[in-house]
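Researcher: We plan to redesign the surface later, but first we want a full-length starting point. Tokens attached.
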């Protein structure tokens, strides 16, 4: 029998943090609550409030420091700067070089005392120092060095090599007479482990980005991950999943020489006290079954029943939830069938929802007078499958397309297009390159292609056709076409560099991806998947098998 329960959220996190802090004080221990980045994007709260709600709630919980995640920079530096004006905690981004930032910006980051970036004068990260029983402990932050490849930092600020900055910063901290050091990172779990092996003298790395949930959660039907606090080269590496579902609690004891004497702790899922037999949480368990479930979960060390903090709930209910709930009740259209989303096509075929999303980009562009020929969108920009039945504005901007990124129309030659499609897929499947993840896989509207993995580099796109005037015609390498994509893809992120035209800048449409799809869905009223697929993906090792 499957049982569903509500889990996580800022109100439960706040309660769990207060309890952890209370326990630390009772045992005579110091306490810090840190956030490993990516608090922006992914929910209606960011879509509506652009970081204001995040800053208000994190302030109320009492965060001590936050790392810079890539999603903080999806809309450039300005939103981060506005967020930091509201935040009463520091942002640790020790390899972010702001020294050449344009000071004429409306709100420059380099002047903010709570942004602890790269110290270009002394060539190391700025760092916090916390007094622990009279002993100083230094904390600095690191962000993904390829930030420009997966997000949208302003071009006048860039990210430096993680290993070099970490080594220089540890050396500088030790010169200052401090030998107890913690890194707050947004690098990803494997990169955290690698960094631990490369840099001596760090007690712990508290990380994010890959949403890694350390610990064995098979007792409640989830996966088994690495043990909590993996030790590499004397450094303990931890992560606590994603989406505010769990709280990681790391206990560190240092020796006098700065090495770690003891590292312990665990991740705990933060559960509510209501159980149902359905995901919509409408059919509750009978009393006896409820008690059996409650007793079982109460005995598990990796879950915690957690009431919501009334202060946080009050802020949410008064200031933010009304607008969110309004979107949740606005029916936009009806899906005649469930639509599956997958990034890289598998034996069941490609995504069914992503082509509709791209088609909405084309439709919305044409509604605004742009005679675009086709559209392209990276698979990672679509975040959910959708069930058959009514869809609401909240489903679109909160689940399907939660990244508030605008659309851009741009000119591209056939040769550029061919190179961009191959580059994006090479990046997505690590075919001859060290990619940034499967999210770059391209979906299209009015454009179909065949990609053969085992073909020679530069020749993997074998078929490339445009649907125009009711027929499919070959894309000509030397002809120019008009395309539409998200600003993320149009500016060459994650393998799409060939789309960038140095002579003609893209034209912003001043409409987000979610806005475009909502307009499109309202116009259609009801719809299902396209009958024809645009992608013929032939993976390596399957030369005779087309995945389409």
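Model: Full-length starting sequence:
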């Amino acid at each position: 029998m499957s049982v569903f329960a509500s889990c996580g959220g800022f109100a439960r996190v706040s309660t769990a943090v207060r309890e952890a802090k209370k326990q630390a004080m009772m045992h005579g221990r110091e306490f810090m609550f840190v956030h490993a980045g990516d608090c922006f994007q992914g929910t209606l709260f960011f879509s509506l409030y652009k970081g204001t709600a995040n800053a208000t709630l994190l302030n109320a919980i009492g965060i001590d420091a936050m790392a810079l995640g890539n999603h903080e920079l999806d809309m450039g530096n300005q939103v981060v700067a506005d967020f930091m004006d509201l935040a009463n905690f520091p942002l640790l981004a020790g390899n972010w070089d702001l020294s050449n930032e344009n000071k004429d910006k409306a709100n420059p980051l380099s002047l903010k005392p709570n942004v602890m970036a790269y110290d270009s004068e002394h060539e190391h990260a700025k760092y916090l120092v916390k007094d622990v029983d009279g002993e100083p402990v230094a904390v600095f932050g690191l962000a993904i060095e390829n930030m420009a490849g997966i997000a949208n930092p302003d071009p006048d600020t860039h990210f430096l090599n993680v290993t070099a900055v970490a080594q220089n910063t540890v050396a500088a901290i030790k010169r200052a007479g401090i030998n107890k050091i913690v890194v707050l990172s947004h690098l990803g779990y494997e990169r955290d482990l690698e960094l631990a092996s490369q840099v001596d003298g760090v007690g712990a790395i508290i990380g994010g980005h890959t949403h890694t949930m350390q610990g064995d959660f098979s007792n409640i039907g989830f996966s088994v991950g690495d043990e909590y606090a993996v030790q590499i080269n004397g450094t303990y590496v931890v992560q606590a999943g994603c989406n505010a579902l769990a709280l990681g609690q790391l206990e560190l004891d240092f020796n006098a020489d700065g090495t770690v004497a003891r590292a312990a702790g665990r991740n705990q899922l933060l559960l509510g006290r209501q159980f149902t037999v359905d995901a919509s949480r409408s059919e509750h368990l009978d009393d006896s079954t409820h008690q059996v479930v409650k007793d079982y979960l109460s005995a598990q060390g990796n879950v915690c029943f957690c009431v919501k903090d009334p202060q946080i709930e009050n802020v949410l209910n008064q200031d933010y939830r009304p607008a969110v709930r309004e979107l949740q009740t606005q029916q936009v259209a009806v899906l005649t069938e469930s639509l599956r989303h997958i990034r890289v096509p598998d034996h069941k075929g490609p995504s069914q929802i992503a082509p509709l999303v791209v088609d909405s980009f084309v439709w919305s562009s044409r509604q605004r007078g742009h005679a675009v020929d086709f559209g392209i969108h990276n698979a990672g920009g679509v975040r959910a499958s959708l069930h058959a039945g009514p869809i609401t504005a909240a489903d679109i901007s909160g689940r399907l397309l939660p990244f508030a990124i605008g659309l851009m129309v741009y000119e591209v030659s056939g040769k550029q297009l061919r190179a961009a499609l191959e580059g994006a897929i090479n990046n997505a499947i690590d075919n001859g390159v060290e990619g940034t993840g499967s999210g770059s896989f391209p979906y299209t509207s009015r454009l179909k292609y065949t990609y053969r993995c085992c073909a020679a580099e530069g020749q993997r796109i074998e078929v490339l056709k445009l649907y125009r005037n009711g027929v499919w015609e070959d894309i000509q390498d030397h002809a120019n076409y008009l395309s539409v994509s998200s600003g993320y893809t149009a500016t060459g992120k994650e393998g799409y560099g060939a789309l960038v035209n140095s002579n003609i800048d893209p034209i912003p449409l001043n409409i987000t991806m979610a806005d475009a799809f909502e307009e499109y869905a309202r116009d259609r009223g009801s719809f299902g998947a396209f009958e024809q697929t645009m992608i013929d993906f032939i993976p390596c090792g399957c030369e005779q098998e087309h995945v389409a």
